[in-house]
Write a structure and sequence with these properties.
This protein is α/β, with parallel strands linked by helices. The protein has 14 helices and eight strands.
Length: 396
Amino acid sequence: MIATAVALLSLAVWAYLLFGRGWFWRCAERDDSVPVASDAKLSNAPESWPAVVAIIPARDEADMIAHSVGSLLRQDYRGPFSVVVVDDQSADGTAAAALAAASAAGAADRLQIVAGASLAPGWTGKLWAMRQGLSAVEASAAAPEFVLFSDADIAYAPQVLARLVAIAGARSSVLTSLMVKLRCESAAERWLVPAFVFFFQMLYPFAWVNDPNRRTAAAAGGCMLARSETLAAAGGLEALRGALIDDCALGAIMKRQGPIWLGLTESVHSLRAYRDFADFRRMVARSAFAELRYSPLRLAGAVAGMALVYLAPLFLATFAQGLAQAAGALAWAMMALALAPTLRLYGRPVAGALALPAIAAAYIAFTINSAMQYWRGRGGYWKGRIQAPMREAGRV
């Protein structure tokens, strides 16, 4: 009786996820919905292209910053565009690598290096670096209409900036963000990356994010184009200075000001490699407990919910009988169907969707590890900094 109830509940959840949660799993919200002609000029291009400044916070990124900066400075963009790199007290020659890339692109005059100051109290490291870059932009003679916040490990195809600006104009969006294509080469990446993107879309259905009439708000931190005046009106980066999940926090404050847009892309790639499962665990653990607001009750609920939704169908389909087994098998098939479009996006065999219960089990372990790291005083650890404030403990 209990097995049947669990199976039917799991089945009901998957029916809701497939048909009632913004069709998130179809991967339909994409930047290539904006037509691009063969000469790389957008068919819906604005009459005049607004000024844009990219801000890249970089801490010990010498092995990737050159590729990132070079790809930005080579953008096929007809408006004023420059790049600010905030060298966040790097010890590996990050600034020199960025300067060399700008020189190689013949655009040294469009790159500014800002030497990062020591971390200010109450700020997370990335946001503090972003704030310093924004201060440099605000101090310039002419403030740009848009600021592009980009990570140091992101590479752009030449048409991306023009496409972002065109989307912002077409959608009147105050924040336009792309979920960059993550690296998917190592065994850990091949198994875990598509599910990571799938889970993110499930938490924040992109169609709901892009609907001005819904409260759902999110962004993807690797690539975020913000209207400068709107960001200032929203309270600036000071309004989210302590956030570990800075992108979604930015999405939330910007959506209170106007429409935002978030989509998938195949034109912007992450260069960050997760060579083994431990690397990926550390990435997830950095912010998973923050997503749960550092609450033990939310953690327990999340683990129980994931067990019901992802693990129970496999066990019921394998070991139960009768209605419980049939419902469990159907729920398992539904979750595989849901993951398939994301696997296709990443060039992975759709048969791998049947492994989603095992992949979800790994994410459950990563989430528990995130909480354990927090309780050990190492929450939000990244680039030598522990950033999760212990005063948050126990929030519900």
